[in-house]
Amino acid sequence: MAFPEPKPRGPELPQKRVKTLDCGQGAVRAVRFNVDGNYCLTCGSDKTLKLWNPLRGTLLRTYSGHGYEVLDAAGSFDNSSLCSGGGDKAVVLWDVASGQVVRKFRGHAGKVNTVQFNEEATVILSGSIDSSIRCWDCRSRRPEPVQTLDEARDGISSVKVSDHEVLAGSVDGRVRRYDLRLGQLFSDYVGSPITCTCFSRDGQCTLVSSLDSTLRLLDKDTGELLGEYTGHKNQEYKLDCCLSERDTHVVSGSEDGKVYFWDLVEGALTLALPVGPGVVQSLAFHPTEPCLLTATGGSVQCWREEAYEADGGTG
Question: What's this protein's family per the entry (predicted)?
Fold first, then answer.
């Protein structure tokens, strides 16, 4: 007689704080994991970008070169380059190892809210309050963008990139998906100003957060509304949303100092995690493990599942 297979373990939510990074760079505007989740970037209101090992709590390098606060950053697939954008309207390409500015791209008419590399890290895409997305060639000496996407009617709050598409959220209440293979633009109207968009990890869905304190899960191809998630507060700030490492939970920051986790399929609120007294402005979920970074005020908190045992004690 065959014994039944053991049930696969349910997803574990990162709800145990294992480290706090006092970033020392004013307000932390964004926190981002690198491609493999071993390092993270913090964007400061003091014009700096910092690279950390978040589980150890060690600062590895500080990148200085922006003229105003840094609002977003991303790492390349091979960890050799960083890109960042900020209040100085500039998009900066950095060499990770030396800490030097490789290129500074200017052309946006307003602050740059969001930056992403394409998969090969040959192009940086930047979204600005000026309503445009600009594509900058990292290898060229040309000062102008190789392409500008200017369909939005208001500021761009969020840009994400897959191997063949660009997903953009705008304050005009629309999510736009540019399919580069088909050369087509797909647009879904949400109605409320969009603060963050992202692809599900399986590439089938898009998650959209907006200033009506609602997250929506859309079918990427049809635009069909698959789920709505409420309970958090998001009415005035640009907050991050994301999916857990196995697409089981929807996660959002909130203006009430908590991070909210919902069951993706059921739509039910699973956990409201108290982080601090202020707005939880930025989030980053580890690509493969139940590990979450949160940014509130001038610090970043690193959260793991309850069973996690850190080497060498916790912070």
Answer: Belongs to the WD repeat MORG1 family.
In a domain, 10, yes or no: no
DSSP letter for each residue of 106-163:
---SS-EEEEEE-TTSSEEEEEETTS-EEEEETT---SS-SEEE---SS-EEEEEE-S
Answer yes or no: is 314 within a domain: no
Q: Does residue 146 contact residue 161 with C-beta atoms inside 8 Å?
A: no
Per-residue model confidence as pLDDT tens digits over 17-59: 999 999 999 999 999 999 999 999 999 999 999 999 999 999 9
* 109: CATH: 2.130.10.10
Q: Please write the tens of the pLDDT for every residue from 146-157.
A: 999 999 999 999
Structure tokens at 20: 């706090």
* Residue type (1 letter), 96: V
Asked if residue 267 is part of any domain, the answer here is: yes
| 6 part of a folded domain | no
Q: Domain count for the chain, please give it.
A: 1
